[in-house]
């Protein structure tokens, strides 16, 4: 007998999309908002809910994870960089989330169950890890996507169960599939940003270059130093300085540029960012994943200043590799660096062309389509497979380098062809003894009698059956490329 599946759209035929984020910086919530806007363009999406899991948790938990991160960035950036690198190995963290996170996750789990989603999109690794546990326990049966929000892939985003993993660029997709994850579950649509379909470039070749300085993102003293440096530039320009909600910073900048006449325009928080991006020639600020993606989509090259160690430094490396950015490592040379870009004939135009090539303005819609039109069963990565991937990465090995019973194998749905499990070859024994089919494949079944399987195998069966009593799967080796 088949039990009802929450993966099918609701009774009215519409998807119920839950978007889970975490307010550690603005980028994760901005990506969530972009996906929410993409939902409005699809006729098959009914109810949409965006939930910041930190706001749903306790104030202490929210302060430690949210505010605490930025205290570390300001006071001990070397520790942030160490933490980023230390957690970069794939599946370094395995098993359930820590007890403190689990205790604070009860309100989030309750909200998920109340909403009854048919699709869940996670724009932060914390809810992605939480949702993976719910899939494996059979607590939810919704299509689930993990959406990264920086250009470089980071190991914390890998979870034990999901339907689709969306990374920002092709190199990240190659990296993840080299580890052994199946190509049909990983795509590189870019970082979701708010799509501006009716906004053309507002740049003019007959006017001096327009600088867009994101002062609020670079911090108080450093932001003032950036603006002060532009006062010494030799090239003609006009500048818009955006200070966000930092009123004290805005007042300092206004006082600093008061003698420059109408060359500078100083703004606080503004809803005009799309117009500013489209009308500027060069952006000066930090390479956050969302900020960089918005600039690239607008064809706006960047001068990178004061990046956060870890993800922002790696974002900057990618943008410079594409020819769409330059980086300034000290505030004392920012004016000179911008002058160098503006004074070299054709350089600014070349960087603008590189930015347009790098931009992915339709990423949010592509993420939504990839999930809703993709496989209905999750991919499960067993604990043994996770340990193997971690150990192999520490030895600089990839999946195709592994041999013998410790190698990785995949189970694929015989009907749809989608991969449903990644496991070690020596884990097949129990499954084959119980479920082997005459053709050499397996027919996984929902057994009512007690079984002697390890807990990991029971979780795999519960997750991939998705309400069915049986599922025919094929065992596939991981082939070498070419």
Instruction: Count the E strands.
Output: 18
Mean of residue pLDDT values: 87
CATH class of the largest domain: Alpha Beta
Counting helices, strands and paired strands, the structural category is alpha/beta
Query: Architecture of the largest domain, according to CATH?
Result: 3-Layer(aba) Sandwich
Q: If you consult CATH, what is the topology of the largest domain?
A: Rossmann fold
Give the helix tally.
Answer: 19
Query: What portion of residues belong to β-strands?
Result: 15-25%
Overall number of structural domains? 2
CATH superfamily of the largest domain: Glycogen Phosphorylase B
Sheet of most strands: 6 strands, parallel
How far apart lie the N and C ends? Answer: 43 Å
Helix content: 40-55%
Q: Strand sequence of the main sheet, in spatial order?
A: 2-1-3-4-6-7
Enumerate the spans where pLDDT stays under 50 for 5 or more consecutive residues.
1-8
Family: Belongs to the glycosyltransferase 28 family.
InterPro entries: Diacylglyc_glucosyltr_N, Glyco_trans_1, Glycosyltransf_28_UgtP
GO cellular component, one term: membrane
Protein name: Glycosyltransferase
